[in-house]
Structures
1.
Amino acid sequence: MTDFAATKAMFDLPDGVIYLDGNSLGPLPKAAGDRVNDMMVKEWGQMLITGWNKAGWMALPTGLGDRIGRLVGAEPGTVVTGDTLSIKVYQAVASALELRPDRKVVLSDNGNFPSDLYMVDGLLRSLGPDYELRVVAPEEVAASITEDVAVLMLTEVDYRSGRMHDMKALTELAHANRVVTVWDLAHSAGAVPVDLSACNADFAVGCTYKYLNGGPGAPAFIYVAPRLADRARPALSGWLGHDAPFAFDLDYRPGSGIERMRVGTPPIIQMTALSAAMDIWDMANMTDVRAKSIELTELFISRLEATCPELELASPRDPNQRGSQVSFRFTEGYAAMQALIARGVIGDFRAPDIMRFGFTPLYIDEQDVERAAGIMADIMGNRLWDTPEYKVRQRVT
Ligand SMILES: Cc1ncc(COP(=O)(O)O)c(C=O)c1O
């Protein structure tokens, strides 16, 4: 059994704060500060450029990839970290499209994160007017997997509602129609058990600053199924994905396996912080995390529904259909969230009216949920959100 009291003790959370926004930005692992400081002073400071070899910096992207891979059911050697998620979406979809050169349609849904759609729109514009991004409602995805589709690109857990797609069933359906799949695991990795290998997924991408707690700007990751890894052209063919980067050949020759999905110089400071976060993940088992996450979300929903009639549940009621977040609709959701934050309960707001709360068993327990629900009941029952200061929109919501 995962010892959640032990994992909670490994995070540096401000006193009095109940942090229900780990689905957006995970909190600081206590070990990260010293780890990063050591890396800077002892490695960067003393080793200078020799750190790439002596401190193993060059191997960090794949080493971290394997540690993340364990959480998402990826075979060793199939995940690499680097770049941002938007970039990795572009790379995965571009690579996937090249595997179906006879088809020109990328299928996605309107619950997808806008950046995924923007990136693919940009890619398809560069490829030419024959290409099409087809966006349907989430419940229409299965029926829209037709034989003209080259790539199915979906985010498994909807960032607003937490609704979850059935990765295994949709991947199977896609393959039956010779469609290549790209799964975005931004709201899945560290949130719900994922088994990329058992689902026979083709490509997957995700970020490490949400449930994985790698810190603001932490790198993304990409997975390529072993059966495709030496076949997929990386599309973003940077020098560190070259077979022999230090040969400085003028012609690009992709490296073997997942190494070819690397692009440029990895962010070592950020990856060092991520490695401190992954030490905590090494203590956790995703089956335990999921069981606890369901307990916490069920408790939160039942408390809020009993005390806050103004709120409408925007997440699926069936816990098996949602990720590790709970969202409620409320027309004054922005102001209500500001009032909550002022009382130390941190969630976030997604336009037009969604109040979003992430549940992260590594550092959130039942007492936190009970306290947060009590504060919410006070704010809603006494209209404490109804003041001008809570209605001024900030840049990041
Ligand atoms: C599902 C999903 N995809 C893509 C992104 C964009 O990621 P990045 O800003 O790291 O490029 C996000 C960011 O929150 C996201 O939630």
2.
Amino acid sequence: MSPVTVYVPGDASAVSVGADAVARALESEATRRGRGVRIVRNGSRGLYWLEPLVEVVTPGGRVAYGPVHAAQVPKLLDGGLLDGAPHELRLGDMGAHPWLVSQQRLTAARLGIVDPASVDDYLAHGGYQGLDAALAMAPADIVRTVTESGLRGRGGAAFPTGIKWQTVLDQQVARKYVACNADEGDSGTFSDRMLMEGDPFALIEGMTIAGIAVGATQGYIYLRVEYPHAARALLKALQAARARGYLGANLRGSGRDFDIAIRLGAGAYICGEETSMLESLEGRRGEVRVRPPLPAIKGLFGQPTVVNNVVTLATVPVVLARGAAHYQEFGLGRSRGTIPLQLAGNVRRGGLVERAFGLTVHELVHDYGGGTASGRPVRAVQIGGPLGAYLPASEFDTPLDYEALAAKNALLGHGGVVVFDDRVDMARMARYALEFCAVESCGKCTPCRIGSTRGVELVDRIIAGRVDAARNGTQAADLALLDELCDTMFNGSLCGLGGMTPFPVRSALRHFREDFQPFPGAHAPDSNAAVTAASVRVG
Ligand SMILES: Cc1cc2nc3c(=O)[nH]c(=O)nc-3n(C[C@H](O)[C@H](O)[C@H](O)COP(=O)(O)O)c2cc1C
Ligand code: SF4
């Protein structure tokens, strides 16, 4: 009997809930029963509440079970898991799962489906069609295709990718670089990690296309050190791509050269900012560079450099393979294409949702997410990482696209959405934003380095004033001062860390003002009343 192929995700989140133990148990228990199994460690499909999600290849197709725990494996095998038998954990064909059917997966199309270590599997699922197309085009035509697709950077700033590439292409120098930003520091984000772990060839192909488009022969992936699973998956894939002539000298006999190396970051949020990343790549402390010059003109080692996020680069093969017009069909306004949104925090069904721009916050949080994990009402979401704004439930009809969010003084960033229930204390969240900035500041400019620390002190005073009758009188002055501080940080900071910290702070002040005001009863001479009010608010 030939071995049965079983997919068990090697994705870091799946591993964190026991996927390695499940893989080991399946192997040993199947062997004990005289059944051969071939375990493939795939990526996650992004339905995290169902991990570890095991898929068995049967004559009728792949049959999923989840969430599977190692202790359940013997009984599952006795019950016929290897033949796709019925069981309460049986989910059937994941391709027909409503959570996935309603998505529009372009960038994440192969996630959880392919073997991330196999070039052949990648090719069998449409891989390298983009590079084949690009190799048949002139560099300027590749860049034009990317520009016409409307693809904008998915790392946070949403800058048009084609325009950046054109700037690098225009530089008449012998040495240029492609630097992939895989620092993924935003809270509640994991799409870069999932892609690198589950479909690393997509990133490798995207970087290779970028290289031949702009005339670069060397690429670097700047990977955060906290992603060891991604590092392993990338190393394997890089070796496999090289062995098959998809990397290295004379790519696929085209006469073009391109190779990629990985560099590990040391775990600083600011190293995700592109100029700090370049400093770190050059072996120095991650500190923001003054612009101009732009990295596209004077970047890594002083040479023109394409700096793009993982998702941006992993989307490029889709654009080249299917054409700019196809990609343009998705999305709305100036937000074209799809975005892999990441749903996290206090949510029942967290994971990866790739949809065309325009899905509303409500649809994401309630239709996909199923509301909070705690079962309590959703009070707020933070969109776009630790520097993103908080939106109250009354704003959940906002479409998730760059312009619609900008109109609400918010930003989409890297597409992370973190859900909070009605027990969240928004004054403490504002404090957290300022504290985060103080801890992560590179220290180069005063509004960020000093302002963030003064901001923490100010919010501490405001929080104390909610229950301390003696401090109540200073509340209005402190709130005005906090607003002024936000103004200074927004206008005076050298980079986005100090410049965008006011987004969470001001949105908390705007939408959740009551959390910054004296609590009911705080004026009363009986201090017990104040304590009771405080404990109700923080839940
Ligand atoms: C404080 C700060 C942190 C950032 N962190 C990241 C990050 O972790 N990953 C990322 O791709 N971009 C990050 N960015 C955005 C990058 O500076 C840059 O815009 C991006 O890598 C460009 O790629 P893209 O055009 O494909 O988005 C950060 C920006 C700032 C200001
Ligand atoms: S805003 Fe903060 S992180 Fe950015 S350059 Fe200034 S001190 Fe450094």
